[in-house]
Amino acid sequence: MGRITLDKVRKAFGDVEVIPPLDLTIEDGEFVVFVGPSGCGKSTLLRLIAGLEDVTGGQIRIDGKDETAVPPAKRGLAMVFQSYALYPHMSVRKNIAFPLRMAGLDRAEQDRRVAAAAEVLNLTDYLDRRPGQLSGGQRQRVAIGRAIVREPSAFLFDEPLSNLDAALRVGMRLEISELHKRLKTTMIYVTHDQVEAMTMADKIVVLRAGHIEQVGSPLELYRAPRNLFVAGFIGSPK
Ligand code: ADP
Ligand code: MG
């Protein structure tokens, strides 16, 4: 399960209100993209959902349960970081198993989950290598594997592909979409890239200065952008 509800969630850093009160529902299994220009609050919103930042006001519910004050490790969500967050001195196997070792899972369960994730990500033959011996795409898959083994109710991605070259980005987009089809787990994906938003999302949330300009499917936003900001951002003809 992975239905996430934000109810008047707001965030201020000191006197600066970065996210004014915001309501949003993400349905179980949805692929939701937060899109908007740099500095509009995408990462902050994702970090609030993950529990990496405390809300200044409002409530976050996951599958109906109030998780507003629950620490990140207990929310059952997994944040996917860019591949440079891997440990270079550890094997792929150890990198993927890392969150499970931290959580104190027994060795057999760790091995079972790592094998299952490696299978989904086509990394089975690479488990004994180190990140430095992998391609950029394989390294990014290891970073995703580290999230998969936690068997989260939702995956949270913050511009995971922004450090990859253009060709690799296209491939990784397809891989993440394919992963969503296979796992059917809720995914929230932050990007400032319109093409990623339009090609990957079930639902796009267009953000501007911390508030939601429009929510809709790529086709809805393309056909009926609410204003010029949305039209300009999505690249639709209004
Ligand atoms: P985005 O991810 O869309 O580029 P962010 O969520 O990173 O935007 O930032 C939104 C706004 O909040 C920016 O103005 C940024 O400077 C500010 N901000 C983010 N994190 C902090 C922080 N820890 N302290 C103060 N201001 C912050
Ligand atoms: Mg950001």
From TrEMBL:
Origin superkingdom: Bacteria
GO cellular component: ATP-binding cassette (ABC) transporter complex, substrate-binding subunit-containing; maltose transport complex
Domain ABC transporter: from-to ranges: 4-234
Signal peptide segment: none
GO molecular function terms attached to this record: ABC-type maltose transporter activity; ATP binding; ATP hydrolysis activity
Similarity annotation: Belongs to the ABC transporter superfamily.
Full protein name: Sugar ABC transporter ATP-binding protein
Annotated source species: Roseicyclus marinus
Protein's gene: smoK
Whole-protein residues included: 1 to 238 of 334
